[in-house]
Amino acid sequence: MRSVSGFTARKLTADPRFVYRQVLLIGLGVLGAVLLLLVAAIISAVPAKADQPANLSDSELAGVTGQAGISINVETKSRVEIIEYRISDTPDPGFSQHWISFKHVTVDDGTGWHPTNKGYFTTATSLDDPIRLDIGTNDAGRTLISFYDPSHVLPRWYGIEEVEFDGLVLGSFNIDALSIGPSLYRSGSHADGTGGGYDFDYSTRLTAQAIRFTYNAVPEALTLSGIHLAGSASGTENDPATWSFTDNFKIGDMDAGTPAKIDVVTNTDDAPGVTSLVLNVPIQGSLRVENVNFGGNDFGPIAIDGINAHRMSLSFHP
Questions:
Q1: CA separation for the pair 309, 220 (Å, rounded)
Q2: CA trace torsion 76, 163, 312, 152 (10° rounding)
Q3: Helix, strand and coil in the chain, % to nearest 5
Q4: How far does Cα 146 stand from its chain's mean position?
Q5: Exposure pattern of 263-299 as b/e (b: 16+ CB <10 Å)?
């Protein structure tokens, strides 16, 4: 898949909101890239062969319980390639336009493309563990939409050959053997019935062989090897060979009464009267990295255990 796309946002100025706007632009870029990859995966998905319908007796039908949802099994092979993805500020009269560019973005199996090997990554679910979309109630009686996704458990390699900021080439960025999930996303209206938004939570496990940023000006790279994001970790912090992980990393937890929240509100704090997007994202879990290497020098592991942020509020406004 080859495409060129761009988004526009407000003109960056030297006011105190400069850093916010830069972060928002990058966030929009990442969101856009994720949506592009999702569309590519859906387009390339091939439905599995369905079983033939079977006749059931009255006694067999009596034992069937109806469900308010659907299950999806997939088995596809794909390779994503985007020639260039660009984000710009708003071009004002008398000012030049500035761009953040991500050139030659790829998602594959880590071997790259050549005539005898296409580099396809596999998206697959087993018959016993399909993608599931459900609408139902939890133990507290709240109606929720639930989306269970095991389709990214098999690893994928992500790469950006060149990151460019306003004409300055910064280098390349890679994520090797990224495995996510199985993941569970749930959402519903606010528990108290107020606000112009909704509650949600998201739980998952993540591992990656490496995350690597290679600088353009010098032949050096910053590499994080053996990344683990989970609910909890055990084992000696400075000895990755002893590490083990259980449960999922969580963003919000509806069952515990601490959901993540998204609201659109009229700001009364730092920008009174301005319509703002407000996120509240409590998180809990553990993050460990087996080794940090910079320019060929090893700095050892990182262990951040017992993360429990009860409230982390982010406000986005023009």
A1: 35
A2: 10
A3: 10, 50, 35
A4: 17
A5: bebeeeeeeeeeebebebbbbbbbbbbbeebeeeeee
Which among 46, 25, 116, 42 is positioned nearest to 80, based on CA atoms? Answer: 42
Rounded to whole angstroms, the Cα distance separating 27 from 276 reads: 16
Q: State the DSSP code for 258.
A: B
* DSSP-assigned letters across all residues of 1-33: ---EEEEE-PPP-SSTTHHHHHHHHHHHHHHHH
Tally DSSP H helices, then E strands, for the chain. 2, 23
Per the rule left: phi > 0, alpha: psi between -120 and 50, beta: everything else, 34 is alpha
Per the structure block, which two tokens stand in for 275?
């319509």
The token duo for 106 is 């790829």
Looking only at the bridges linking them, the beta strands covering 297-298 and 283-294 are antiparallel
State the virtual CA torsion across 231, 235, 239, 241 in degrees, nearest 10: -80
Helices (H), the chain: 18-44, 58-62
- Is 80 within 8 Å of 108 (Cβ atoms)? yes
Please give the angle made by the CA atoms of 141, 230 and 156, to the nearest 5 degrees. Answer: 110
DSSP calls for 202-242? EEE-EEEEEEEEEESSSS-EEEEEEEEEESEEES-TT-GGG
> Averaged in consecutive runs of 10 residues, what is the pLDDT profile of the chain (318 residues)?
39 44 48 52 46 66 68 92 89 76 94 84 90 87 91 95 90 95 94 83 97 84 96 96 97 92 80 82 96 93 94 80
**Cα 293 from Cα 223, distance rounded (Å):** 5
Rounded distance, CA 151 to CA 125, Å?
6
